[in-house]
């Protein structure tokens, strides 16, 4: 009631008093307007996608129908390219802004046709390749259609081939782009720069500060770290089907297949051919081909006709000589054939040289050494040649084979410069997939023996076995290098004992209470862990002597990237069942150590908690088992190394069980553990565990030497 | 009552009106700009006549542009192909002649000249050399020494200066390569010049301090950032982003922050280094400290950028985006931080910690250019132990080296060659040959006959091939990379050694897990002798060891190449004079490469007593060998040996279990 009273007071103020008729009229009016508004809203919201997707088809237009823009003769020209441009001087990073995905946004200007005052077109509207290139960008994650949010602008003015455009007018067309601003953050793609007679090595169109992705840069025109050197696309890539041919020696050692070769160089090549007739093949243009044969696809030696590019697969090395231009489309064909390119083009900046390691896929020979090329190539070991052949083919597949590949690699390079902390690594750019899969990059690769003074943190996982826990604490606290003790209290129903009841020890003791009784709690990277070395120990491991633990820590210091533990276990392949089997008997080999008592680097806690592959972590928590096997898999997988078992085998009471009693010697337990191994192996997609036949003992273990003088006398007792 | 009802009706209506309006309004706002776009498809259009578009290069066009007369090398600039005559280096590879310095010479300069001369590139005559090196003086402008006679426009010359300010002026340099500290990006010619680090005044010229990183991962308490200060110190800031910095300056003090004007090494995870050239000095400090350098738009070329992949050890960021950089640093995953930190240490230690390393790296880069294809692959430059210790003359395939198996997903080959050195007594070691040949992993036996006596004409029949090589009767000869050594693993033996097949088998299996280390049976340890003020070594049984005797040890054959081609000449002659020194040298060399101790495997006691020559049981406690260890330390510039406290035994070694279960049961015989 109270509320309605309030409304009564306010009501008249909002709506003026009117006659009933008017009121009805207004109500109707309002309702109509309202309905209309709602309808509009819904219309905007819901059928939008249908509308646009139907539009997609309808809106397919012809290139000939694009709007025409007339460029007045006197319209402004950009300045010539600024050779001193670098990312931190000419590029406006503020446009790229903060970006959680670390991806630049690229905008493409819509297609226009540019004509001069008299209506003559400035260039071909767009070539097939440039259209493909823009389509590739538009389909990629980089694309944005919001010009105000873009960091990089790509004009739709096609400058791939300088011969097909009018330089001055094209420059004017660039200058009138809506966000041109002296070319800042604009990216032009050009594959055939220069023109007769001097063939400049960079696009002659004045472009001010615009970045140039150019094919055929020389070191004089290339602005290191600003421009991008790209390949000259070979249209044959799409036209011809050329199945991959594996590496290895081929019929010809050296092949030259280019048609437009400077006469001086042709003389050198012919001399090589004369000298090594069997292994060198120098091809030329065919002069007497019958009509209808595409002469681009044929090469000749005297009267012998060879199919191109197939003939490239017959050679180990293929010469790629400069023509009038430095960049040659032949490079792409040669790489594709798995032929190692021998690049003879002084000062040529190789495609994507900012990120690609061309030493691995090519041989660069100075032009004046062309006549020595045979000898130079002979000096390369065979294994390296095969490696280069593989690498050449991989470069083509990844970065040359399509216009899309070229466009995306270019954008990735620019992206890497703008977000350097998220850049792709050398390996990501250069290693072929086969190497990427088989190789291991150890996260702790630096050979470094941590100082002994750092000590280790012992982490005891416990549920409610207080008496046993206190004994473990007392025993572990006797180890000289212990620097802190952390008790992970995994029982949510019971409080840990009062402070006064805990054993008094010489190092800090902390109790961490967990939110849930999960096994993975033992491997959580607690802030309390200040040392690199962690000793994971169960609350019932009371049989390890202080000497054994101290020695274990010393061994860990020599192998800080491994799991160093006491009870060792083995995985075996069961041929009958065709699956893995868990083995805890006295074996001569070891591939796992139990984390009921093991030293390891605290970084592995981070890996276990945040980087464990697949659903292993949840699986372990759900089954309340195998967290130790999971840790063994994880460490072996990232380091590629085996565990180190320390000290002789001794009777471990219930070594297999963690929190659950009475399961250990059970047959079912072994079956479960075997299942874990099979499950993890399938998640990892491989068996990472490494089998070794050694364990670590003190230097003088069981040697005939006075016990008093041994550093670790109390081992294996 | 009625009016009340009417009014409430009104009210409800108006309220719902407002509500709907509020809901619709944002939609309206969205709808308005959307309308003109409604018809335009997103992204680049799919043209109907796409198939009809012409290619950018018509088939006929490319061949048409017939080659023009080739342009002459660009006037002002040089690159490798144009300005360096490689043909002079054919045959011998890189040979360097350094012009003597006229006038007063500083210690550093003397050090540089000495280290070039003693290196494997050194040459005494300018005629023989293919690279002539001119040491630039750090003289004030105008006091430049005259150019040498053989200058020849600077062709095949390297002008080297450890300071950015240079003596022969740039216009005088011509075709000479320039190696100087922190060159500006604008004048640096990539692939031709060499960028050196800016070294502090008192940089050690040999050996050098190790990296300061004591542990792999950052200590939880360490601050995130340190900022290089103009006066030379470092200022650390807490993990709060507000503390630092806009335009590279920490003006406002927030949170825990400390200035250490005196401290030269920063203690932080990341080190911000401003753009200007003098700040390059901070770069090396950060590197040594294991503090990841964050370079804000450096105007200078990073040292050895031609070969070192700096993205693995440093972050080059844009100084215009300080907050973005900070946010990125804070969010950087621990895995990346860990990798960057370790790489700083590796690079510092491999290329920067001494003047000698800097000089050798420079020459190694030039040698790689001369080699062309068979040069160091990038992996060899950018992962331990580094290119100075992985010689491309051995192989260019990483899998041939002992260091890169993990990165390449390869394994060392599964067999070994036994190399038996027969010294003066000239007794063919028949028992030993049988024991070794009995190993299933043995590929071949090579006998290096270094005795005055002629070798016997008949040798026992063995399951594996046996070859007798004529030795040079020099102790260093046993580590020569003989052609016949075809397997990765070598078992080095003396004629007097005594081993069982079981011991050999187990040791080899262990070596396969540690192919970069030495695996041996008998050990020595080194110690610092206070009384004598020098290093000593002992063969006494002890709780730790740092060397294994090369009279019975497995190691990778690459170490023969390294021993012969990389060890300073002085040390190799020392080995010939004092044969017991070879073990120390080999162990030091391997330890210098791996930074790790060797591995000891069990050895039956009875042999030890039966064959005293295996142990260094000379009656005299070898004064020459004592000297050997100290001379070695002097040449290395530091003590490379690392101690170990463990021995690797078979898993069931001396365990209370049936002997029949044990694979290496004969190792346990009393």
TrEMBL record, chain A:
Report the EC code(s) recorded for this entry: 2.4.1.224
Q: EC top class, in one word?
A: transferase
Give any Gene Ontology cellular component.
Answer: endoplasmic reticulum membrane
The GO annotation for biological process reads:
heparan sulfate proteoglycan biosynthetic process
Location in the cell reads: Endoplasmic reticulum membrane; Golgi apparatus, cis-Golgi network membrane
* Cofactor(s) this protein cannot do without: Mn(2+)
Question: Which parts of the sequence belong to the Glycosyl transferase domain?
Answer: 456-701
Top-rank lineage group of the source organism: Eukaryota
Q: Which pathway does it operate in?
A: Protein modification; protein glycosylation
Database matches in Pfam families:
Exostosin_GT47 (PF03016), Glyco_transf_64 (PF09258)
What is a single molecular function from GO for this protein? glucuronosyl-N-acetylglucosaminyl-proteoglycan 4-alpha-N-acetylglucosaminyltransferase activity
Alphabetized InterPro entries for the sequence: Exostosin, Exostosin_GT47, GT64_dom, Nucleotide-diphossugar_trans
Which reactions is this enzyme annotated as catalysing?
3-O-{[(1->4)-beta-D-GlcA-(1->4)-alpha-D-GlcNAc](n)-(1->4)-beta-D-GlcA-(1->3)-beta-D-Gal-(1->3)-beta-D-Gal-(1->4)-beta-D-Xyl}-L-seryl-[protein] + UDP-N-acetyl-alpha-D-glucosamine = 3-O-{alpha-D-GlcNAc-[(1->4)-beta-D-GlcA-(1->4)-alpha-D-GlcNAc](n)-(1->4)-beta-D-GlcA-(1->3)-beta-D-Gal-(1->3)-beta-D-Gal-(1->4)-beta-D-Xyl}-L-seryl-[protein] + UDP + H(+)
Q: How does it sit in the membrane?
A: Single-pass type II membrane protein
Q: Which residues form the Exostosin GT47 domain?
A: 101-378
Record keywords: Disulfide bond, Endoplasmic reticulum, Glycoprotein, Glycosyltransferase, Golgi apparatus, Manganese, Membrane, Metal-binding, Signal-anchor, Transferase, Transmembrane, Transmembrane helix
- Which sequence ranges are marked TM in the entry? 24-46
Q: How does it assemble?
A: Part of the heparan sulfate polymerase, a dimeric complex composed of EXT1 and EXT2. Could also form homooligomeric complexes. Interacts with NDST1. Interacts with GALNT5.
Tell me the function of this protein. Glycosyltransferase forming with EXT1 the heterodimeric heparan sulfate polymerase which catalyzes the elongation of the heparan sulfate glycan backbone. Glycan backbone extension consists in the alternating transfer of (1->4)-beta-D-GlcA and (1->4)-alpha-D-GlcNAc residues from their respective UDP-sugar donors.
Kindly provide the name given to this protein in its UniProt entry: Exostosin-2
What is the source species? Mustela putorius furo (European domestic ferret)
UniProtKB/TrEMBL annotation, chain B:
Q: Which residue range or ranges hold the Exostosin GT47 domain?
A: 106-331
Where do transmembrane segments lie in this chain?
A: none
Pull one GO CC term from this UniProt entry.
endoplasmic reticulum membrane
Q: How does it sit in the membrane?
A: Single-pass type II membrane protein
Name the enzyme group at the top EC level: transferase
> Which pathway does the database say it acts in?
Protein modification; protein glycosylation
Keyword Transferase on entry: yes
Q: Which domain of life is it from?
A: Eukaryota
Q: Where is this gene product found? A: Endoplasmic reticulum membrane
This protein's UniProt keywords: Disulfide bond, Endoplasmic reticulum, Glycoprotein, Glycosyltransferase, Membrane, Signal-anchor, Transferase, Transmembrane, Transmembrane helix
Q: Give the EC number.
A: 2.4.1.224
The residue ranges of the Glycosyl transferase domain are 416-653
Q: Which segments show compositional bias classed as Basic and acidic residues? A: 246-257
Q: Where is the signal peptide?
A: none
Q: Which reaction does it catalyse?
A: 3-O-{[(1->4)-beta-D-GlcA-(1->4)-alpha-D-GlcNAc](n)-(1->4)-beta-D-GlcA-(1->3)-beta-D-Gal-(1->3)-beta-D-Gal-(1->4)-beta-D-Xyl}-L-seryl-[protein] + UDP-N-acetyl-alpha-D-glucosamine = 3-O-{alpha-D-GlcNAc-[(1->4)-beta-D-GlcA-(1->4)-alpha-D-GlcNAc](n)-(1->4)-beta-D-GlcA-(1->3)-beta-D-Gal-(1->3)-beta-D-Gal-(1->4)-beta-D-Xyl}-L-seryl-[protein] + UDP + H(+)
Q: Does the keyword Transmembrane helix apply?
A: yes
Q: Where is this region: Disordered?
A: 236-262
Molecular function GO labels: glucuronosyl-N-acetylglucosaminyl-proteoglycan 4-alpha-N-acetylglucosaminyltransferase activity
Task: Please list the GO biological process terms of this entry.
Answer: heparan sulfate proteoglycan biosynthetic process
* Sequence similarity: Belongs to the glycosyltransferase 47 family.
Give the function comment from the record: Glycosyltransferase required for the biosynthesis of heparan-sulfate (HS). Transfers N-acetyl-alpha-D-glucosamine to the nascent HS chain (GlcNAcT-II activity). Appears to lack GlcNAcT I and GlcAT-II activities.
- Which named protein is this? Exostosin-like 1
Give the encoding gene's name. EXTL1
